[in-house]
Amino acid sequence: MNKAELYLQIRDDIRRRFWPQGQPLKQQALADYYQTSRIPVRDALARLAAEGWLVSAGKASLMIPPLSAAEAQELCLIRQQLEPLALRLAIPQLNFAILGAAEDCLRAAAQAGADPLRHGELNWQFHQLLYQPCAMPTLLQLLQQLHLKVEMYLGFQQVSLGYAAQSAAEHQQLLQLLRDDQPELAVALLQRHIAEAAAALQQHLALV
Predict the structure, then answer these.
(1) Dihedral, CA atoms, 119, 120, 123, 124, nearest 10 degrees?
(2) DSSP E strands: which ranges in the chain?
(3) pLDDT per residue over 12-70, tens digit each?
């Protein structure tokens, strides 16, 4: 695989928690596993570190940072500000086609099993469809970057904490409120959806 493909594969394996958190990643071990040389592995790890997927483990090595209750709370506070804003601005432009595509994402998520990567992708697709009509490119770009940071937590939450059913039910309720032209209730539900999910995750992380 080329450098770009290697970067994406390592990133996806991090998102799936294939590599252990809190332990140094050995370049040679990764090169052997991905059947490549150490140079593209080094470059991929450097890019992942620059994007926040990896942190220093001392002696020029890198590791996947453990999940943090403090970081989960910080990400939640940011989401609570930006996502309701995007939804509120997008609501006047939402139509049946967009809401139907969002419904398709929920159906696909119901069939995705316990794969946290797939759930994370479909979760973002669902929210992105609802936020896209806000027509604010910088806000949408920030939300996409935020989603990449949040994704490991979302996968952990849905699979390890058994949160997938509650999340799916709240997504369905959100769609129904949008179809029923109840924008304020929809925005309030989104805020509550983010806050309650984060509270459950923070409580769990504080105990481990």
Answers:
(1) -150
(2) 24-25, 55-58, 61-63
(3) 888 777 898 888 999 999 999 999 999 999 999 999 998 888 989 887 789 998 877 78
Other beta carbons within 10 angstroms of residue 63's beta carbon come to: 18
Q: Residue 67 carries which DSSP code?
A: P
CB within 8 Å of 80: residues ≥ 6 apart: 191, 194, 195
Between CA 186 and CA 33 the distance in angstroms is 46
CATH superfamily, domain 69-207, is GntR ligand-binding domain-like (1.20.120.530)
At the top level of CATH, the class of 3-63 is mainly alpha
8 Å CB contact between 129 and 101: yes
Question: Domain ranges in the chain?
Answer: 3-63, 69-207
